[in-house]
Amino acid sequence: MGTYDANEFLNVGDVSPSQTFTINVQGCPTAKSTVYSSGVSANVRFTGDADAINSALLRLSAGADSATGLGIEILDNNDVAIAINGESGFRDLVLNENGDANLTFKLRYKSTQENVHAGQANALLYFDIDYQ
């Protein structure tokens, strides 16, 4: 997600620039038309360990060289926050002729304390997709 100076996080709630990631789904049925409205929707549930201070954020992995005072915030493609162990909500998939689609989300670091300490800022995030 990039390298940032701890001094960029001076106040609780300060954030890094967001980084986009994509979940690709393949082979969805294309019962209706393709490319425009597929009639297919998906909901993504993001799971992982919540931060101890801000339970909406993903907790950083612990370690001797780990950063402290930060969590990871998940955002949808409209920059609306999705709490860890929460859901994106169902949204229509735009399928290509092969039944493939992309779900786009963003991640960013968010400070949970005024004193952020530099270090590794890794975490483990899982996702499940509900499809209808």
Automatic annotation (TrEMBL):
**What GO biological process terms does the UniProt entry carry, in alphabetical order?**
cell adhesion involved in single-species biofilm formation
- Which segments constitute the Fimbrial-type adhesion domain? 1-132
Q: Which GO terms describe its cellular component?
A: pilus
What PANTHER family does this protein map onto? FIMBRIAL SUBUNIT (PTHR33420:SF5), FIMBRIAL SUBUNIT ELFA-RELATED (PTHR33420)
Kindly provide the name given to this protein in its UniProt entry.
Minor fimbrial subunit
Species, as recorded:
Escherichia coli
